[in-house]
Design a protein that fits this description.
By secondary structure, this protein is an alpha/beta fold. It contains 15 helices and 13 strands. The relative contact order is 0.11. The protein binds adenosine-5'-diphosphate.
């Protein structure tokens, strides 16, 4: 039996490697996938492919590096995907800088350009690139496509990519890049099926996961994003602080003797819902907690979503709809209701029954703006881009032969 050509989609982080598999030929849903998580602590592997589930733990695994797990994953795929042949890999790469406004087939030159961007995303970019290198070193290398979290935001007007710093700083790379672009691109593509007016108009998409941000979509293109130079800016998140007066940083450096590593830990790992509540970074734990600090953290999260939605509405000159997506946005009726209540002055009114049922339409008949719940799917977006670039590459080869 001929093997099915399959695309491997990889999302590699500092402590986990997520993968999923998609048919190369069409836009059918994922064939399955899995995750290696707890790298460097308690590594474990879980996968579900073709109706079968697999798992493995490495009790002795402390100290194994990412390379070890890439090798494991690739061998595992070869062994367990007897009916599939992996013909390409699509990678989530956090930073494409200003140069990469679209996904790209990776070659040595691209890899070098992406390496130059490591200082802009030191927590993620090295892991993304290590995966690409590891796959490139296999005995039978396959085409690899890099899909960027920043690319979708290159449509943000040039003036809005600047900070109020001397212009030379922007030339040195200190500008707003925006993130979660693959999620926003997926939602922009799906929105016309739900709300034609909003998709041709002005929509705020609220990607509310562990990392959280908002995107202003005008006619399907990014007009603004609450994340800017880094993934710290904007909303209060699970463990990240969101918008902060930069004077705080100067104070911590000068008066409290924090160095860069301590600042990074404070702002990325110890702040946000976790730091405010002292209970957890997980919204479910906070909603279930009796602690007043947990309740306050939830209120602050909703305040930040509503206030920054209004900022984006100002950037767009109005608001036709809000789309909720990612873990909290898709699953928490309570948070959606609390945000909509804060946006009543902009015409938002939620339908409690529809909201409790999870949507997709959660606006009441009287609401002056659309309110939607649309599940995001960054992996399928990467698969789509990878297919398109593969098709482009084979068309170019065919033209070269003709
Ligand atoms: P990541 O950014 O890691 O991809 P997700 O999009 O999976 O994150 O979102 C994780 C967040 O979603 C966590 O804060 C989790 O508590 C929250 N979440 C998941 N399910 C629910 C739920 N039913 N109610 C409230 N929050 C939820």
């Amino acid at each position: 039996m001929p093997k099915t050509d399959t695309i491997l989609v990889v999302n590699a982080g500092s402590s986990s490697i997520k993968f999923s598999l998609y048919p190369a030929a069409d836009t059918a849903p994922s064939l399955g996938g899995g995750i290696i998580e707890g790298i460097a602590v308690h590594p474990s592997f879980k996968a579900g492919v073709g109706g079968e589930t697999f798992s493995k733990n490495w009790p002795e695994g402390r100290g194994f590096d990412h390379e070890h797990f890439y090798a494991f994953l690739l061998d595992w795929l070869e062994e367990h995907l007897a009916d599939n042949r992996i013909v390409a890999a699509g990678h989530r790469v956090v930073h494409g800088g200003t140069a990469f406004a679209a996904p790209v087939l990776v070659d040595d030159e691209v890899l070098e350009a992406l390496q130059q961007l490591v200082p802009l995303a030191p927590l993620h970019q090295p892991h993304n690139l290590a995966t690409i290198r590891a796959l490139g070193q296999r005995a039978t290398p396959i085409p690899q496509v890099a899909c960027f979290d920043t690319a979708f935001h290159r449509s943000i007007p040039a003036r809005d990519q600047l900070y109020g710093l001397p212009l030379a700083c922007a030339e040195a790379g200190l500008r707003r890049y925006g993130f979660h672009g693959l999620s926003y691109e997926f939602i922009a593509g799906a929105l016309p099926q739900y709300d034609r007016t909003a998709s041709a108009g002005r929509t705020v998409v609220a990607h509310l996961g562990n990392g959280a941000s908002l995107c202003a979509l005008v006619n399907g293109q990014s007009r603004a994003c609450t994340m800017g130079f880094s993934t710290l800016d904007g909303l209060i998140m699970g463990t990240r602080c969101g918008s902060l007066d930069p004077g705080v940083l100067i104070y911590l450096l000068r008066e409290k003797g924090l160095d860069a590593a301590a600042l990074e830990k404070l702002l990325y790992k110890q702040s946000g819902l976790l730091g405010l509540s002292g209970v957890s970074a997980d919204m479910r734990d906070l909603l279930a907690s009796d602690s007043p600090e947990a309740a306050q953290a939830v209120e602050m999260f909703c305040d930040s979503v509503a206030r920054q939605t209004a900022q984006l509405a100002a950037a767009m000159g109005g608001l036709d709809a809000v789309v909720f997506t990612a873990g909290i946005g898709e699953r928490s009726a309570e948070i959606r209701a609390a945000v909509a209540e804060r946006l009543a002055w902009l015409g938002a009114e939620i339908d409690p029954a529809a909201n409790a049922g999870g949507g997709p339409r959660v606006a009441s008949a009287r609401s002056r703006i659309g309110l939607w719940v649309i599940p995001t799917d960054e992996e399928s977006m990467i698969a789509r881009h990878t297919r398109a670039l593969l098709a482009g590459a084979s068309a170019t080869r065919a033209a070269g032969r003709a």
